[in-house]
Amino acid sequence: MYLDKIVQSHREKAAREQRNLDDLVGQARALPATRGFAEQLVVGSREQLCVIAEIKRKSPSKGVLHPDLNAANISALYEQGGASCLSVLTDEDFFGGSVEDLQNARASTSLPVIRKDFTVSEFDVVDARLMGADCVLLIAAALSNDELSRFFDLATHIGLDVLVETHDESELDRALNVGANIVGVNQRDLTTFEVDHARAERMASLIPPTVVRVAESGVRDARDARRLRDAGYDAVLVGESIVTAGDPAAAVRDLMVV
């Protein structure tokens, strides 16, 4: 199963951590304010479906998506197309990402950026802030209740927004219990990587209107975007269909349905 293998790899790395967490938290809290990932989505979604455009070099299920990807160039194109935020994979082993991709993407635009990775420790949370991210991803399926709560509170403490990713009703309850104000519903099953397009529609009405609703994975075109907007989503997080497009700016623009 993909998720188990990836999370186990990250936990093994976290177990070897030798740095002082308190020192890193202090450094993170001294940084300038972030760009406001959540606020960007709240404001943008009043007019149209927001697009969180992802920089994704490869995936475990599809292999290499864009071997010559330049994070700065494609981020600029995403911004030209009207993307509200950026998502950058920093996992190296399974997705070919890097910290440099995130930093180059953020430096080339004015958009807020989420670090898209498998967060399994406090160090991962703090590193997201130190590398320049404005938001961090917490995947409910990969974390215990205690971890989800601790990592969420730490992220908030150091100035990060948090997107809590869910896959079903029980995970949604867990996200809401920790105070999540951005909830993602992943249409992709992280054990099989198959996409279930009915998943997001089923769960949309269960997310309170005060919470930013983000549909993740499997968004292929304007028809999918329209369906998700009609279901009540404020934003879609899209990677594969736009990173492989001949015109990434136009691909983003096509998803921005009103």
Folded structure, characterized:
The longest helix is centred in the first third of the chain and has 14 residues, at 2-15. By secondary structure, the protein is an alpha/beta fold. The radius of gyration is 17 Å and the shape is globular. The termini are far apart. It has helices spanning 2-15, 21-29, 37-44, 71-81, 99-107, 122-131, 145-157, 169-177, 197-204, 222-231, 240-243, 248-255, and strands spanning 50-55, 58-59, 63-64, 85-89, 113-116, 135-139, 161-166, 182-186, 212-216, 235-238. The chain has an eight-stranded parallel beta barrel with strand order 1-4-5-6-7-8-9-10, surrounded by eight helices. The protein has a two-stranded antiparallel sheet with strand order 2-3. α4 crosses α5 and α4 crosses α12 (248-255). The protein has twelve helices and ten strands. α7 (145-157) links the parallel β6 (135-139) and β7 (161-166).
Note the main attributes of this structure.
258 residues; single chain; alpha/beta; 8-stranded parallel β-barrel; globular
